[in-house]
From TrEMBL:
It comes from Vitis vinifera. Keywords: Methyltransferase, S-adenosyl-L-methionine, Transferase. One of its GO terms (molecular function) is methyltransferase activity. SUPFAM superfamilies: S-adenosyl-L-methionine-dependent methyltransferases (SSF53335). InterPro entries: SAM-dependent_MTases_sf, UbiE/COQ5_MeTrFase. The keyword Chloroplast does not apply. This is 2-phytyl-1,4-beta-naphthoquinone methyltransferase, chloroplastic. GO terms for biological process: methylation.
């Protein structure tokens, strides 16, 4: 179950909706990294974090960067979420390789993606 994990990466986090939900699940003992290429979206997320000012939201850190070059060590995260962001990544194969590189072995990758889009993505990944 997702709430037993303590260190989350929310890729393509946008304004932080999933990061806030994850933060509530992991509580003050956990850590959530909201990661996005858009400085503007991260500014919105940070502003929301301060306006909402829940104690558990202090465990969220916002980082700007590219999903195909994650600045994290191997096996850093218990779980990775990526709302609908994968459809917007230019090099999906590289992004998936990076996700699995920073994900701890045997852990999960929840994503909000339609079945049609998932089938298309899996077909593409066969050729990575």
């Amino acid at each position: 179950m997702i709430y037993f994990y303590h260190h989350f990466l929310d890729l393509c986090c946008g304004s932080g909706d999933l990061a806030f939900l994850l933060s509530e699940r992991v509580g003050s003992d956990g850590k959530v990294i909201g990661f996005d290429f858009s400085r503007k979206q991260l500014s919105v997320a940070s502003l929301r974090q301060h306006l909402l000012s829940k104690a558990c939201y202090k465990n969220i850190e916002w980082i700007e960067g590219d999903a195909i070059e994650l600045p994290f060590s191997d096996c850093s995260f218990d779980a990775i979420t990526m709302g609908y962001g994968l459809r917007n990544v230019f090099d999906r194969c590289k992004a998936m390789q990076e996700m699995f590189r920073v994900l701890k072995p045997g852990q999960g990758y929840p994503s909000l993606i339609s079945i049609k889009a998932l089938n298309h993505l899996l077909h593409q990944l066969r050729y990575c």
